[in-house]
Write a structure and sequence with these properties.
five-stranded mixed beta sheet, elongated, alpha+beta, single chain
């Protein structure tokens, strides 16, 4: 009698759509999911006969890569948990989960609308395998799927008829194949440093990892997320004349926004080293100093760059001779975050939310991100 829990081997059915095509829906009903599961089981057993010894679990939902590749792999974890609850022997060792009254049986199996228009749709599968067969079947999946993983003609036809779309390709991949494919895609768009950190978060979250972005910003992964060096500190280390350095700073903030958007999609937190806000707030916040009563009252200043809008807010106060003293920097990660960021900075320093637009990136006499030395009034 088997007493050990079966081992879950994650697989995905990848559907490549023609350019510009979006499926009219992202989930299947219970009956549809069960019908598709039977076709998938036949495909996989034809490729790897040992699959007959496993229980196949199918989630009748179409996801984007970023939804599946998140720390802890919550979609697969939920699928596995639901499948383990179904008594053995039901449904000929195939179990499928689809919608009832328009909803999937658990929230992690609900695809997010924000990612519904990607060029590849991914339907998660899991094989629950007796422990004694797990290593052998896992090896067979890695070998066979990457080389011969095209779906059968009946399965592809069923998908196109049921979803009402054409497919460029439909094939099975192991989760490792999906991770490798994503790595190549990120490297192709100059995001290899970001992938280094994401891979650590996915596969070895107990480790720390450090890297530099393409523009040289220091990034570190620890168990609680990714920590970036302050853009203002990075700026202070750059050489060149002020105009060149300001242009480079704008490019760095643009890169940081790209990183923040992708990390948010993968559910990996991003914050600044010694910062007080995370990217989930829509901005990053860098406190520097408390208000000095020997200086003028603080005010908010907006550093701007063509095409990017406001790249940073600085809270600064002036003293003798107009010398400006920076108290904090904030970096909005998208336009809608500017208002909340200004409100947080204003509340912290007890000032108005009125923003002095600078029209450019202003550096102080030391080359640091600062504020004008003369009044804007």
């Amino acid at each position: 009698m088997e007493t050990s829990q079966p081992v879950a081997l994650p697989v995905v059915l990848a559907l490549e759509l023609p350019a510009g095509v979006v499926p009219p829906r992202t989930t299947l009903s219970r009956d549809e999911a069960a019908e598709l599961a039977g076709l998938i089981a036949a495909d996989l057993q034809a490729l790897i006969p040992q699959v007959a010894s496993a229980r196949l679990a199918v989630a009748g939902a179409l996801f984007d890569t970023v939804e599946l590749l998140r720390p802890g792999f919550p979609v697969w974890a939920t699928l596995d948990e639901l499948a383990r609850r179904v008594p053995r022997g039901h449904l000929e060792n195939v179990v499928a989960f689809g919608t009832h009254d328009g909803h999937m049986p658990a929230q992690p199996l609900e695809p997010e609308k924000a990612y519904a228009d990607g060029p590849m749709r991914l339907l998660p599968l899991s094989l629950l395998v007796p422990e004694a067969l797990a290593d052998e079947l896992s090896e067979q999946l890695e070998v066979q799927l990457v080389g011969r993983g095209e779906t059968g003609a009946r399965t592809a036809d069923w998908l196109m008829r049921t979803l009402g779309i054409q497919l460029e390709h439909a094939r099975y991949l192991s989760r490792n194949d999906l991770i490798a494919l994503t790595c190549v895609q990120y490297e192709h768009v100059n995001l290899a440093p970001l992938w280094t950190l994401l891979e650590t978060a996915l596969l070895t979250p107990y480790r720390e990892e450090s890297t530099l972005s393409a523009r040289g910003l220091a990034l570190r992964y620890a168990h609680d997320g990714i920590h970036a060096r302050s853009p203002a500190q990075w700026l202070a280390d750059q050489a060149g004349d002020p105009a060149e350095r300001a242009h480079a700073f704008a490019g760095l903030v643009f890169e940081l926004r790209q990183y923040a958007a992708l990390l948010a999609a993968h559910h990996v937190p991003l914050s600044l080293e010694n910062g007080e806000a995370s990217a989930t707030d829509g901005y990053l916040l860098e406190p520097l100093a408390d208000t000095d009563p020997g200086y003028d009252p603080p005010a908010l200043f907006a550093h701007e760059a063509p095409g990017l809008g406001v790249v940073a807010l600085t809270v600064a106060q002036r003293g003798q001779g107009g010398h400006a003293r920076a108290l904090a920097h904030g970096y909005p990660l998208h336009p809608a975050a500017l208002g909340p960021l200004a409100a947080v900075l204003a509340a912290r320093h007890g000032i108005s939310t009125d923003i002095h637009a600078l029209g450019r990136i202003v550096l102080d006499e030391s080359g640091w991100l600062g504020a004008p030395a003369v009044s804007l009034h």
